[in-house]
UniProtKB/TrEMBL annotation:
Domain of life assignment: Eukaryota
GO cellular component: snRNA-activating protein complex
Protein name: Small nuclear RNA activating complex polypeptide 1
Organism phylogeny: Eukaryota, Metazoa, Chordata, Craniata, Vertebrata
One BP annotation, GO: snRNA transcription by RNA polymerase II
PANTHER family membership: SMALL NUCLEAR RNA ACTIVATING COMPLEX, POLYPEPTIDE 1, SNRNA-ACTIVATING PROTEIN COMPLEX SUBUNIT 1
Pfam families on file: SNAPC1 (PF09808)
GO molecular function, one term: sequence-specific DNA binding
Length: 236
């Protein structure tokens, strides 16, 4: 009593690996996918099935998994990359044409995957954090900060070196980093986004261009304002 038979053990193990495998693929965040990789490694090596139940991977998902492996190496998560390589050498993956098993002459059941919203990887996180309004406000604050440093300095044309607690090109550097991230995100979206969602990519690129134009305009205006401050200070 209480002992599980081999058939039931195989079904339970297969279902457990299937549930864990869902978190190994997009749209989940990088940290969640790394955790799923460790979970799959532990489940595969501790199962009691003979022969061992393998991790089912559809061929359409394999390119994304290879990109994930490269991300692990680029991020220097060598422990996770080693675990992934160990699973491959152990032939733990079962490559299939479809994500789920299809049976002949059975009624097709449409089953939607229930994703955990809190585990998803928000691709527009940077856009939500650094918006046009935020960049504009940062530019105004930075300009006002520069003016106040000139006012309290001995040389009114430029702030004292002792007051240089922040880089003069802070906002511009932040803008460049934001645009660099957006460019990387666009290239990644081109690789994985379906054709039916190309409009979303166009909107995303338009938003990035608007940020670039906005910050460039403010940079020119702030430079002109700073120049006028220096001229007025010299005249006084």
């Amino acid at each position: 009593i209480g002992r599980i038979r081999a058939l039931e053990r195989n079904k339970l193990t297969k279902k457990t690996l299937e549930l864990a495998q869902q978190y190994f693929l997009p749209p989940y965040a990088f940290q969640i996918r790394v955790g799923a990789l460790y979970l799959l490694y532990g489940l595969y090596n501790t199962q009691l099935c003979q022969p061992k139940q393998k991790i089912r991977i559809a061929l359409k998902d394999w390119p994304e998994i290879q990109r994930f492996q490269q991300d692990l190496i680029d991020s220097q998560h060598y422990d996770a990359a080693y675990i992934f390589r160990t699973l491959r050498l152990a032939r733990a993956f079962h490559f299939t044409a479809m994500p789920k098993l299809l049976n002949y002459r059975t009624k097709k059941k449409i089953q939607e995957n229930e994703f955990k919203e809190e585990f998803k990887d928000p691709s527009n996180r940077v856009n939500n954090l650094i918006t046009n309004d935020v960049l504009e406000e940062l530019m105004n604050i930075h300009d006002h900060y520069q003016k106040m440093k000139c006012v309290i300095s001995a040389d009114k044309s430029q702030p004292d070196k002792a007051l240089s607690l922040i880089k003069d090109d802070f906002v511009v550097t932040l803008k460049d980093i934001t645009l660099e991230h957006q460019e990387w995100q666009q290239n990644r979206m081109v690789e994985i986004i379906p054709k039916c969602k190309k409009k979303e990519l166009v909107c995303y690129m338009a938003q990035a261009k608007s940020i670039c134009v906005l910050t460039s305009d403010h940079r020119l205006s702030s430079m002109s304002r700073l120049g006028s401050i220096k001229v007025s200070s010299r005249n006084s």
